[in-house]
């Protein structure tokens, strides 16, 4: 299969200047600035096929946004080659960006003071979308995302979730071949997250649309991706299927308990449970291997022995994921 | 081409919508800009009332210069006024990418989406003052009107170029709100009869940063007071605009990280 995205030895370094702390240092940096080189993306190669959903996972500062900016043509690589749909994104930017869509979780494309519907019309003009197409797509998208009732309100009064859904409409009206998402679920509540993930899955299925999303939330990847690339400090440390990642990580969840009674002295460790953190005699975080016991069985078991007032079940934090990958792979070069 | 026109139209529509959303704010800020710019012809009026003058220039002639200056500023800031602050806020928030995601010339896109309705007051104020002053300087032949039109456009090009240069500077001086004052201070020269300035200033104001074309020269054309040599100043105006565009685009390329 011909890849739609082909990335070879992609590298981006930023040059910045060190700003000293304190008056003296600041004063000094006024006259003499110390150059700092940041290797944001470091010799990364990968290829992605048509219709794939690929998650780029990594902690804050890993280089995810930098990578996606380069893939979108908004940033020139320092070195390396990118081919997407036969274009070199940054060099052919103007022609290329008409074929892709993008949602940057922290950078809105909506016009703040006016209703989203007017921003949609702006995109209609920008991409030269014909009237009937615009109408039918808008109807379809607003229905899928369940936002027909918000698109006529001023953008500034919308909730974050509603706004993010509108950002997706902005990105999809021109029927892009590829959708790039930079932390699309950041800061959203659970319901909005679920809705947006469902939307991405549907677009992927219906239009065979390729989708690249960055995230620091393992759940996004588990829910959506067929393929996962993990980057850390600009380096690619993992690139395989979601199944493979799960094998690497094991099927683990973190459960935070707030017990109604002191559990001082209680031993929780066993074949499938590990104590991660004992914040106090009441608050404990356990890691549960769900390959051995389902979460509901596990909770039933605990509740038989102790009373608790609060629990939350979470995916492994991204730092842990990266650590597990290093441990499992053993030989991955830094 | 049609796509670009549609985008511009949609941009104007959005600007109107936004202005309507903040009606009070819009009215007040229009009035403030208008007041600020109407006050200074009043100063001229006071100068003449007090019996002094700019040598060789009558009151209405000076008012004509100042009204042309105001019209030109108003027009330029309607079209280009938003580029500076939009660029500044995008660079500060690191969101300039959003503009680069659109399949358009980024400079055009910024201009199209920042149509500054607020400046309509300034422009109309300039027009009123212009009509008032023009009625008092005697009949103006058609040929003079044509010359005026050409020079007026050239003068507006200078202001556009200046706006773009200021916006380009904001890529480097992120968040420096003083940048626009820099432009304003240079511009003041265009508000007065150029001959009252030293020769070196006159030369700079026609050839290097052609601010003379913003108010003084087009008004002189209406009064039939331009010389053949003054037409030579038209070319630098468009060069100045071209320089503004070039610098701005250069800064975008730096932002994209070309060789940076
Ligand atoms: N414009 C920039 N100038 C200098 N350094 C930058 C710039 N953008 C990002 N960086 C640095 O590059 C690294 C990667 O950043 P980024 O791509 O935003 O990571 P992520 O999106 O994974 O959080 C970080 O160390 C960040 O500080
Ligand atoms: Mg990021």
So, the CATH homologous superfamily of the largest domain in chain A? P-loop containing nucleotide triphosphate hydrolases
Q: Unreliable segments of chain B (pLDDT under 50, ≥5 consecutive)?
A: none
The level 1 CATH classification of the largest domain in chain A is: Alpha Beta
Helix content of chain B: over 70%
Domain ABC transporter (chain A): 5-258
Keywords (chain A): ATP-binding, Nucleotide-binding, Transport
InterPro entries (chain A): AAA+_ATPase (IPR003593), ABC_transporter-like_ATP-bd (IPR003439), ABC_transporter_ATP-binding (IPR050763), P-loop_NTPase (IPR027417)
Protein name (chain A): ABC transporter ATP-binding protein
Describe the model.
The complex is a heterodimer of chains A (334) and B (260). Helices cover 35% and strands 30% of the residues of chain A. Chain A is α/β, with parallel strands linked by helices. Chain A has 2 domains: 50-78 and 93-247, P-loop containing nucleotide triphosphate hydrolases (Rossmann fold); 250-327, Malonyl-CoA ACP transacylase, ACP-binding (Alpha-Beta Plaits, 2-Layer Sandwich). Chain A is globular and about 65 Å long. The two termini of chain A are 31 Å apart. The model of chain A has no long low-confidence stretch (mean pLDDT 91). Chain B has one domain. Chain B has helices spanning 2-21, 23-49, 59-93, 97-100, 106-112, 120-134, 142-172, 179-187, 199-208, 216-222, 234-255. At the A-B interface, helix 3 and helix 4 of A face helix 1 and helix 4 of B. Bound molecules: adenosine-5'-diphosphate (ADP) and magnesium ion (MG). Adenosine-5'-diphosphate is lined by residues 14, 16, 38, 40, 58, 60-66 of chain A. Chain A: It comes from Paenibacillus albidus.
């Amino acid at each position: 299969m011909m890849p739609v995205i082909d990335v070879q030895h992609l590298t981006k370094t930023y040059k910045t200047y060190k700003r000293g702390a304190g008056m003296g240092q600041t004063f000094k940096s006024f006259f003499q600035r110390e150059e700092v080189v940041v290797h944001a993306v470091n010799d990364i190669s990968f290829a992605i096929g048509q219709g794939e959903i690929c998650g780029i996972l990594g902690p804050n500062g890993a280089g995810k946004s930098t990578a996606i900016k380069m893939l979108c043509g908004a940033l020139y690589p320092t070195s390396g080659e990118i081919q997407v749909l036969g274009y070199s994104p940054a060099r052919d930017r103007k022609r290329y960006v008409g074929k892709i869509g993008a949602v940057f979780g922290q950078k809105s494309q909506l016009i703040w003071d006016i209703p989203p519907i007017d921003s949609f019309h702006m995109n209609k003009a920008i991409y030269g979308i014909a009237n009937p197409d615009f109408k039918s797509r808008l109807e379809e998208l607003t229905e899928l995302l369940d936002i027909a009732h918000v698109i006529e309100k001023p953008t500034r009064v919308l909730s974050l979730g509603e706004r993010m859904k509108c950002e997706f409409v902005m990105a999809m009206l021109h029927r892009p071949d590829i959708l790039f998402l930079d932390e699309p679920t950041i800061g959203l509540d659970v319901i909005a997250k679920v809705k947006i993930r469902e939307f991405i899955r549907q677009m992927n299925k219906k239009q065979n649309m390729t989708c690249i999303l960055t995230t620091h939330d393992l759940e996004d990847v588990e829910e959506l991706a067929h393929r996962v690339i993990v980057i850390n400090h600009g380096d690619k440390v993992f690139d395989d299927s979601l199944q493979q990642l799960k094998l690497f990580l094991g099927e683990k969840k973190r459960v935070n308990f707030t017990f109604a009674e002191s559990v001082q002295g209680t031993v929780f460790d066993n074949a499938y449970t590990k104590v991660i953190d004992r914040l106090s005699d009441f608050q404990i975080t356990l890691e549960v291997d769900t390959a051995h016991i389902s979460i509901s069985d596990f909770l039933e078991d605990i509740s038989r022995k102790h009373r608790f007032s609060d629990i939350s079940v979470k995916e492994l934090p991204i730092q842990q994921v990266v650590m597990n990958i290093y441990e499992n792979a053993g030989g991955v070069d830094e | 081409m049609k796509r670009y026109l549609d985008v511009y139209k949609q941009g104007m529509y959005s600007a109107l919508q936004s202005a309507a959303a903040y009606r009070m704010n819009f009215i007040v800020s229009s009035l403030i800009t208008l007041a600020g710019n109407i006050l200074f012809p009043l100063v001229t009026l006071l100068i003449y009332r007090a019996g002094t003058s700019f040598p060789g220039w009558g009151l209405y002639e000076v008012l004509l210069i100042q009204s042309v200056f105001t019209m030109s500023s108003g027009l330029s800031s309607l079209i280009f006024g938003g580029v500076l602050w939009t660029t500044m806020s995008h660079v500060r928030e690191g969101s300039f990418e959003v503009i680069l995601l659109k399949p358009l010339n980024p400079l055009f896109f910024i201009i199209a989406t920042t149509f500054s309705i607020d400046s309509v007051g300034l422009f109309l104020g300039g027009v009123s003052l212009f009509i008032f002053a023009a009625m008092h300087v005697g009949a103006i032949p058609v040929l003079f009107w044509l010359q005026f039109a050409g020079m007026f456009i050239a003068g507006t090009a200078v202001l556009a170029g200046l706006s773009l240069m200021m916006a380009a500077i904001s890529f480097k001086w992120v968040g420096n709100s003083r940048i626009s004052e820099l432009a304003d201070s240079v511009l003041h020269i265009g508000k007065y009869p150029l001959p009252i300035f030293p020769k070196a200033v006159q030369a700079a104001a026609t050839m290097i940063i052609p601010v003379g074309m913003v108010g003084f020269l087009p008004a002189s054309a209406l009064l039939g007071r331009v010389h053949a040599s003054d037409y030579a100043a038209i070319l630098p105006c468009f060069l100045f605009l071209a320089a503004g565009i070039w610098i701005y685009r250069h800064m975008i390329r730096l932002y994209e990280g070309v060789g940076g």
